[in-house]
Amino acid sequence: MDITGTASASADTTVPQSPPSTRKLTTILSIDGGGIRGLIPATIIAFLESKLQASAISFFYIQSSELDGPDARITDYFDIIAGTSTGALLTSLLAAPDEKNQPLFDARMLISFYLDNGPKIFPAKKAGGHLTVAKLLGAVRGPKYEGALLHDKMRTLMRDLKVADTVTNVVVPAFDAKCLQPVIFNTYEAKHEPIKNAYLSDICICTTMAPTNFRAQFLTITDHDSGQSREYHLVDGSITAKNPTIAAMSVLIKEVLRRNPDFNPGRHDCTDYRNYLIISVGTGSNKQRAEKYTAPQRAKRGLLQLLYNGGFTPIIDIFSHASTDMDDCLKGNTLEENIATRENMESLMRIGRELLKKPVARVNIETGVYEPVDGEGTNEEALARFAKILSEERKLRQRNLNS
Questions:
Q1: So where's the catalytic machinery, residue-wise (predicted)?
Q2: If pLDDT is split at 50, 70 and 90, which confidence band does 327 have?
Q3: Which helix (H) or strand (E) holds 176?
């Protein structure tokens, strides 16, 4: 499978997402990072899009109720799509426009992207040989992959598209390693501040540059009208926001405070969280590995063991997973972000499908354990309910806008 072709729009979907000022809800889709584990949210998002489409489409053998027709796209329903690391790749693929300003790709193509390109982006290392001091130091000091293929692929797909061109608003966190400051690329600012209007392909690369996997990226954006330019020295967006929902909410509140007319406070109270519909899709957790890092064990290990131990990077794992609250559904190779064998990718897709069948659960904030919620049904049933709400919200906006 290859991620080619464009999405044709039907009469029902040619109208872009109406501004939030005409709405009842503000809608946000948030996609976590996780390397090749992006296949899990890709699977779930493709299912959600199928529920917004037509009964003629059967996805994973689950019959979809008819809502908005086969040309409905995820971006038709969300005011903001936010993504960190691999979530930023998914965000950009979903929000990139074609020549008619319609979404360039449908959600099922996200799966094709990983299947086609994962093994090239994360090539398998040759087995054999003893673990020498040189290999150990190399694993600690340098990134595992060059990242050139990922950059070339995204440039081919995204062409000269910039953040301001997206069909709905995107929010993509990154981290400037030189300034030690978070950087949040977003459509709102990109439309008004040229030095923040980066190429989509560039921000995809910058936000996926996990220090242990890829090299940091240098980026310069120039405003040719004013002559101003800004340099960025960027690494993985997970350092800024492991859960990009936080970044999306901060951008949204900033726009309200700036009195962006799309967020008319007379119609919408940004402090009332009943006015938000947020769907946050993760890539699974690493709790099995985290349980190895007990306090007594840490006290017995030196600096090198904190940096690299048995193929793991304990201190980096602790920081990068500190804000993760995903259900513990991964084990073995599926825990890893960079094992892109066909077998592992199929396992990740299967996990995504199995998650849809699981009962809705909420985290117990005292224990961190997810517990099933009585009466809520399965995750696929919950997504079907969300699809209906999203469809009704979009129709309401269009009626309000027309009147």
A1: 85, 236
A2: very low
A3: strand 169-176
3-state SS string over 96-165?
CECCCCCECCCCHHHHHHHHHHHHHHCCCCCCCCCCCHHHHHHHHHCCCCCCHHHHHHHHHHHCCCEHHH
- Annotated catalytic residue 236: yes
Closest listed residue to residue 237, CA positions, set 74, 79, 30, 96 = 30
Residues paired with residue 230 on neighbouring β-strands, in sequence order:
221
Per-residue pLDDT at 237: 61
Type and span of the H or E element at 200: helix 200-207
Query: Lowest-pLDDT range, 244-258, 303-317, 341-355?
Result: 303-317
The residue from 18, 85, 238, 320 that is catalytic is 85
N residues, the chain = 403
Tell me if residue 165 is catalytic.
no
Q: From the DSSP assignment, how many helices (H) and strands (E) are in the chain?
A: 14, 11
Two structure tokens written together for 351 = 């996990």
Q: Are 69 and 8 in contact (CB under 8 A)?
A: no
Q: Which of 41-45, 267-271, 317-321 has the highest mean pLDDT?
A: 41-45
pLDDT tens track for 111-122: 999 999 888 877
pTM over 0.70: yes
Place of tokens 């699981």: 358
Domain harbouring 77, CATH code:
3.40.1090.10
In a domain, 11, yes or no: no
| Residues with Cβ within 8 Å of residue 159, at least 6 apart in sequence | none
Higher pLDDT, 334 or 49: 49
Structure tokens at 196: 């923040």
Number of domains forming the structure of the chain:
1
Residue 328 inside a domain? The answer is yes
What are residue 239's phi and psi, to 5 degrees? -65, -35
Q: Do the domain assignments include residue 129? A: no
